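name: query_chain
kind: protein
chains: 1
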Amino acid sequence: MTRMTFQQAVVAAIAEEMRRDRDVFVMGEDIGRFGGPLRSNAGLWEEFGAEGRVIDTPISESTFVGVGVGAAMQGKRPVVDLMFLEFLALVMQQFLDAGAMHYYSGGTQRVPLVVRAKYGVGPFHGHAYDHHSWLMNMPGVKIVAPSNPVDARGLMLAAIRDDNPVLFLEHMALYHAGRAEIADGDDTVVPLGQAAVARPGDDLTIVASALMVKRSLAAAETLAQQGISAEVIDLRTIAPLDEATILASVEKTGRLLTVSEAVARGSSVNDVIALVAERAFASLKTPVGRLAPPVMPTPFARELEGRYLPDAGRIADKAVRMLNA
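structure:
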């Protein structure tokens, strides 16, 4: 067993896939000898650089993600480091074409591309924007958001092996915070599109991803001290959505609270709310609750950052209000 951080687990998964399949390669800005931003590619240059499978690119996100799309269409499995999610606007056309290519080609073309992006309010201060919801309107694109090192490793294995373009989100507040035991040589893949019940409960369903899972679990501990049993669903994959797990939980608890780091307007968790409204409305005992940042730029000042994001206290308070409604 090896204790790994989120960052180490992701890099270990990429290295395992590069050893297993020579069609897997990585590229992005500063990923060579520098090791990538926040050590996101640490050690890959030393092991695979001489083979030409670690490619340091110029500062042109649209170009190197476009190269990734083309390489994937030619049978390679590129893992592209976009650096930060706030650069997503620079590569929207590339995702649009990659996601639709299977349809455009009448089912003959596949695009096994992984684009990694760091994001989120955290200790590194800056580049925090969470724009993943923009891709919800692009058919064929998958979105992955792990909340812990074990899932980060298993989901990266699945993402690289998938034949569709995948946006792999890496939250900076989770990146180097805490370690988890991962079995040496473990090849366990976490299937895309499969949520996890992070904590079972009977009174309320809380649906979240990434950092918001950690905060929701902390809130559930507080609620338990008040005799409230909250079930926490870790989406893990935002697209495609695990509808069955969400519906089963809400049908059991009768209450739904969504917690998001993406701004409320147009957020991906609004699809969760729509799903429940359409297919489990009769099970609801109270109106659906939603916690998300206001529709404004992510603040830079530390005090404002703290007020911007839902925290464990606000999640617990909202849950209590829903139970007392």
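note: The chain has two domains: 2-182, 196-324.
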